[in-house]
Amino acid sequence: MATFLSREACPTIKNILLLDSEGKRVAVKYYSDDWPTNSAKLAFEKSVFTKTQKTNARTEAEITMLENNIIVYKFVQDLHFFVTGGDDENELILATVLQGFFDAVTLLLRNNVEQREALENLDLILLCLDEIVDGGIVLETDGNVIAGKVATHSIDDGAPLSEQTISQALATAREHLTRSLLR
Amino acid sequence: DYSPFLGIEKGAVLQEARVFNDPQLDARRCSQVITKLLYLLNQGETFTKAEATGVFFAVTKLFQSRDIGLRRMVYLMIKEISPSADEVIIVTSSLMKDMNSRTDMYRANAIRVLCRITDGTLLTQIERYLKQAIVDKNPVVASAALVSGIHLLQTNPEIVKRWSNEVQEAVQSKAALVQFHALGLLHQIRQNDRLAVSKLVTSLTKGAVRSPLAQCLLIRYTSQVIRESGVNNQTGDRPFYDYLENCLRHKAEMVIFEAARAITELTNVTTRELTPAITVLQLFLSSSKPVLRFAAVRTLNKVAMTHPMAVTNCNIDMESLISDQNRSIATLAITTLLKTGNESSVDRLMKQITNFMSDIADEFKIVVVEAIRSLCLKFPLKYRSLMNFLSNILREEGGFEYKKAIVDSIVILIRDIPDAKEGGLLHLCEFIEDCEFTYLSTQILHFLGNEGPKTSDPSKYIRYIYNRVILENATVRASAVSTLAKFGAMVDSLKPRIFVLLRRCLFDNDDEVRDRATLYLNTLGDGSVAETDKEVKEFLFGPLDIPLKNMETSLKNYIQDPLEEPFDINSVPKEVKSQPLAEKKASGKKPTGLGAPPAAPASAADAYEKLLSSIPEFAAFGKLFKSSAPVELTEAETEYAVNVVKHIFDSHVVFQYNCTNTIPEQLLENVTVIVDASEAEEFSEVGTKPLRSLPYDTPAQTFVAFEKPEGVPAAGKFSNVLRFTVKEVDTSTGEPEDDGVEDEYQLEDFEVVAADYILKVGVSNFKNAWESMVPETERVDEYGLGPRESLAEAVNAVINLLGMQPCEGTEVVQSNSRSHTCLLSGVYIGNVKVLVRLSFGIDGAKEVAMKLAVRSEDVSVSDAIHEIVASG
Questions:
Q1: Of A154, B94, B136, B819, which has the highest C-beta tally within 10 A?
Q2: Which of A3, A10, A166 sits opposite B105 (nearest CB)?
C-alpha cells in the first residue's frame, strides 16, 4: 500500500472503480488504506454511484467531491468508470488516468464497451488495472500503450511469443487492434 | 442479466484449481480458473488461511508453463494472495529467474511482484539486479524497478538510498515515464537534504523535462524550495518564480494548472505574481471540460479567501457558472462570488442564489449559507436582505445539518449586528413554531432566554415560548419553562404574568418540567429562599465556570466511591485540559522513546495531583493550583534528557524534574538537582527529594520544593545542575560495577513567570461573562509591541505571556487582516476569575499596537494583569 506523504509526494491514486449500471462491481482496485474493510469499500462505491448516477458523464469526464476525495468519472453504455484521489490532488492528473483507463478498455473490448463484454474479458480488465497504477503510483497513462502491454497476452493463444521482445509484441498488438477496430 | 460468472461458487472454483497440478498443463483452462479466483476476490470474497495457502502452492506449479498469458495471470494472483514470509521462499527462485529473463515483460513483472512480497533479507540478494533494472534500456523494466523502489523506500530506506547513482542516471532517461518515476524516487531519497533538493531543482528547471507528469512533480519540488528559501530581500524577486510562470505556457493543461495552483499557494504572494496565474485559470473557467472548470473554480475559490480583489476580474465568468450542469462547480462559483462581491452587488447576487438554492443538495446549501454568513459580517449594512434570505430558506424543506447551519448563522448575525437582533429573534420564533428538530428548538429557546429580555418589547416573545409548553415534547417543554423563567427574572413588569404560566406547568406529566417550574417559582417568587435577587439569578442562570468534561469525571469518581459528605462542586478542577500534542502525532510517527517527555495523558493534572499527594513532604502544601507543561532543560539527543514541570501551590512551588538516562553503559544513583535561586529572591528552598537510582531508558523523577509568599505571583529565574553518582554497567550481563564516581551535568535555566499563576478556564459566552463583571474593576491601557513578524505572531505571544484560555476561537487571526480582537479568560491564583479583551492593530511597517482591557472579580488582579504585560 502506498503511504500518503505531503503534497511534495508523487501524485497518488486512491482507487479505480469499474461499476455496472446498478452500481455493482465489475472490477475495482484500491490502493489506499482509507477503506480498510470490504464493507467500507462497498459503502464508498454505493455513495459514489448514487451521487453521480443522475449526472451526464457520457461525452466529457465529470468530477465531484466526496468525503475529502476528488472523483473523476465517465459513463459508457452500462459501464461506469471512476478514479479517486485526495482532495489536494491535481484534478487533471486524475482525469488523465481516467482517460487512459477508459481508452485502454475501449481498445481491449474492441469498442464493445459494455458490462457483458467486460465480464467476459475480465482477465484483460484486471491486467489493464495492473498496468495503469502500481500501489497508488501512476505507471502509464497512454491508453494505447496500456492496451498494448495487456494485449501481448490476448494474441498469444496460437503463437508462442514468449521469447519475443516487448516492443515487437507491442507493434503486433497495435496492428492487431487497429485492424480489428477498422473492421 | 447474463454473466459469465453467474452462479459462481468459491468451493467449486477451489476444486477446479486442481487443474494447476495436471502433468500436462492446459494454459487456457488455467487462465480461466485464475480469472474466476480473481473475480471472487474482487467481489469481496475472502479465502481462509488454508485455502489461500492451497491456492498459492497450486499456482506456483504454473511457473512450469511457458505460456506468456498464463504467466501474467500467475503474477497477478501471487500479488493478490500476498503470501506469508515462509511461502515467499517457494516462488523466490522462479521469480528471480524471470527477473533475469531475456523477455522484457517477464523482467518488468517479476520485479514488481518480487518487490511487493519481499522482506528486507531477500532484498539484499536481489539488490544487484534491481540496480541494473533501473538503468535497463527497456522503459517498462526501468519503471517497474523505480516504482518498486518508491514503495520499498518506506520499509527499507537504507537499501534504496544506495541506488541514488542509478536513479540519477534514470532521471536523464529519454523515456517520459521513466524520468517521472526516477524523479519521484530521487526526491524521496533526498527529501531531508535541502541543499540536494535545491540543486536538483536548479538543474532540472533549466533542462528539458519530457513528460507532463514529471513536469508536475518538478513544479511541486520547486514550490518546496521556494517555500524554504523565501523572497530575495534586495530585489524583491522570488527564486524560480520565472520557471513557474513559464510553465503557465506549457502545452499540457495538467502542467499549466499545477503551475497556476503552485503560484496561488506561494506564501505572501503578491498581486503581480498572482496575475498571470489568475489569467490562465480564468481561461479554464470557460472550458468545455467539466474537470478543467472545476479545478479552476476550486483554486480561485481558495484565492478569494485571501486575495478577493485579485479574483474580481473573473466575476463575469463565475456568474455564468451559476447555471453549470455540475452542481459542485456552481456551488464553488457562488461561494467565490460571495467572497469577492462588493456591497452594491449583494442584492443582485442574492436574487440569483434564491433560484439556485432550490435545485442543489443540502451539502451544497450549507456551504452557501456559511458563505452568506461571512458576507453579512463583512457588509453589516446589508443585513436586511441577507437576514431575509436566511429566514426564507429556513422555512423551506431541509435536513438537520442544513437547518442547523441556518440557525447558527442567524444567531451569529444577531450577536454581531445589533440592528439585526429584533428581526432575527422573531424569525427564530417563527421557526420553532414548526420545527421538527428537538435540538434546534432547545438551542433557540436558550438563546431567546438570554437575548429576548434585553429587547424593547420582551412581551411579544412570550406567546411563542408558551406555545412550546403546550405543544411540544418533554425536552422542549422543559427548556421553554427555563426560558419563561429567565424573562420573569429579568423583566419585572412581566413577572406576575409569567408566574401564572409557570404555575400551570406544575401539572405537567413530565418530572423534569414540573421540577423546573417548582424550582423557579420558589426561588424567584416573593417567598424566596435565597437572600438577594442577584444571588438567585447567579445561581439559576449564571454560567457554569467548570468544564463539563471535568464535572463528568469528578461525578463518576464520586459515584464509584461515594463519601459521607455530599458532592462538593468546588472540588472539580477548573483547568481546561488541552489535547496533548502527542496524541496527534501518535498516529503518524513512532514515539522517539528516548528523551521524549513522558506522554502527558489527557488527565495530566489528575496524575500530577495523585503523584504529589503521595509524597508525604508535599502533602502539607494544600491543594495543587496548577501544573505547567514540561519545559525541556536539555537539548534533544544528549546523554541525559531532563525536563521540568512547575507545580504551583498557594504558598509553595514544587519543581518536578523528569530525568531519562540514555546511555546503556551507565547507571545513575542518588540523582538530585542543585538549584540556584539567587535570581528568584522571593523563593526559599524548603526541601528536595532525590532519586535513588536511574537505570538506562527508564524515566524517573526528582523533586525540589520552594516556599514563596502566600497568594503572590512571585517570579524568578532558576539555574540547575544535575548531580549524581555514575556507575559503569556491563551491557552483556546488565550488572553495575560496585564503585561509582560523583559527577555533575549542567542543565538549562528556566523561569517561573506570571502565566504560571493563571489557570486556563474558558467561558462559553464571553460577552455575557464580561457584562456580568463589575465595570469598575475594568482597567484599560494601550501598549506598543514594536515591529513583529505578523499579527498572528503578536497575538500568540501575548496569549502565551498571559497563559489564559482564548475564547470563541479568537486566537485565530485571519491572514492578511490588519486588526484583530482576542478574548481571553482565566482564573488567577486565589481563585479570582479574570477576563481580558485584547485589540490589536498592525501598520505597514509591521508595528503592532495593542489595547488591553481587563475585568476581574478583584481590581488588584486587573492591575496585576497589566503589570504582567507591561513587564513582559
A1: B136
A2: A166
